[in-house]
Amino acid sequence: MKQAWKTSLILLLLVLLVLPPLSSNQNVSADKTNSTLSTQLNEILSDERLDGAIAGVSVRSASSGEIIYENYGDTRLTPASNMKLFTAGAALETLGPDYRFTTELLTDGQLKNKFLKGNLYLKGKGDPTLLKEDFDELAHSLKEKGVHKIKGDLIGDNSWYEDEALSQDLSWSDEDNYYGAKVSALTASPNEDYDAGTIIVEAYPGKHPGDPVDVRLSPSSEVITVQNRAKTVSADEDAELSITREHGSNTILVEGEISVDATRKREWIAVWNPAEYALSLMKQSLKEAGIQLKGDLVLRTTPKEATLLVEKKSMPLSELLIPFMKLSNNGHAELLVKEIGKVKKKEGSWEAGLEVMNDFLEEVGLDTEEMRLRDGSGISHVSLIKPSQLSDYLYRIQDKNWFEEFNYSLPVAGDADRFEGGTLRYRMRDTAAEQVVHAKTGSLTGVSSLSGYVDNGLVFSIMLNQFVEEDDIKDIEDEIAVVLATYGEDK
After folding, report:
1. Of 259, 314, 328, 461, which residue is the catalytic one?
2. pLDDT tens for the 491 residues of the chain, in order
3. Which of 84, 123, 132, 326 is catalytic?
4. Directed axis angle between helix 132-144 and helix 274-288, to 10°?
5. Is 38 assigned a catalytic role?
């Protein structure tokens, strides 16, 4: 009898160990939901397009930071433009959402009877949003100050940042592309996408086959020259037109053919010397404002004793974040790295700026010794971040006083408005993810990434690396995002 009692007690204890507590119904439901999520995501990641590749995925609760799903989450991977998530946060933390860049007109001379005897200095302090009309505004303000004639040189000063204008891992073949434009403290943009240091080149067919191609620059600049070797061909001929820039100069090469019935071909080309380009636009604006310039265009540093005549403030950082993040502007990212270095360490360099970024990430709570950061834009193939680190970062910054501006800057899935949907405006339309997934995209050869938030309370990071077939690879990210958007619906 005693032995039977002991046996019954052991059996009862075993049953109690196996059965969940009576109050755990909600946990059982959550476990079931997580199991379903894992099954769905594992199936997506078994796609043959990822054969031989690495698919890093990390999904967390936005409220607790708890990991809900991971696949190679602790493997260091190349982030591509997901690097901009770190850059934007570091800039907001260091500079603040209301921060504005300044451009100045100064002189080392004296103004008397509408005559400025001395040099006029155009000093850039990093503003990437300067358009031709902004130089017009500076010129008109100068005329309102009483300047009608300048007996001296027009001098451009881009000394606010270091002389190194290209990030260390930028490929030589990217130098003339808009996304590889040089970073300069004195620069200009061709339109309101604010691709600083670039010029828009448009090629139109001639009226008849055999005619030269009609090439137009926007904005026009006397320091940019065009070698037009292209011709118009008949509609039934093969036509291929290229627009590039000659290395080491501001000479744009237009070569090949364009069909007589074509509309146009348009390219954003990075100029060789952004400061010289900006200075030429300032010269044009002075002339158009009726201010006579007797001197030459020169690049050098403004003397400390120079007198400030006019200054122009940029839009606040909170507004600049929209073209920066929505359109994934590489130039903005690299410039912001230099600016935070200038503000925090008095040195406008990548080295100083990346030190500031590392300090910021450590303050957030990340272990920067577990990552490698080489630039601000993510164009580097050498940078390495774990998906789990990026999802953890996105979770941790939610309590920052600038998070609303940060969150708003992220592209929104399926939103057709270019400055809302950004790089996600054509993706995930008519799915559960439309309008509820807001995330940063990223692309390099063999790299694709997507990291951000889902309105149902999830934070995620997806990094696909080392794939060979580029076609439709982003569909895998979209499928994951759609599954995340439906998470919890069966609870």
Report:
1. 328
2. 445 445 554 444 444 444 444 333 333 344 556 889 999 999 999 999 999 999 999 999 999 999 999 999 999 999 999 999 999 999 999 999 999 999 999 999 999 989 999 999 999 999 999 999 999 999 999 999 999 999 999 999 999 999 999 999 998 889 999 999 999 999 999 999 999 999 999 999 999 999 999 999 999 999 999 999 999 999 999 999 999 999 999 999 999 999 999 999 999 999 999 999 999 999 999 999 999 999 999 999 999 999 999 999 999 999 999 999 999 999 999 999 999 999 999 999 999 999 999 999 999 999 999 999 999 999 999 999 999 999 999 999 999 999 999 999 999 999 999 999 999 999 999 999 999 999 999 999 999 999 999 999 999 999 999 999 888 999 999 999 999 999 976 54
3. 84
4. 50
5. no
Count the neighbouring beta carbons within 10 Å of the beta carbon of residue 98.
11
Locate the DSSP E strands across 108-263: 110-112, 115-117, 120-124, 149-151, 154-157, 198-204, 214-218, 225-233, 241-245, 251-259
- Pick from 87, 127, 97, 90: which is nearest to 316 by CA? 97
173 labelled catalytic? no
Active site residue 84: yes
Strands of the 214-218 sheet, one edge to the other:
214-218, 198-204, 265-270
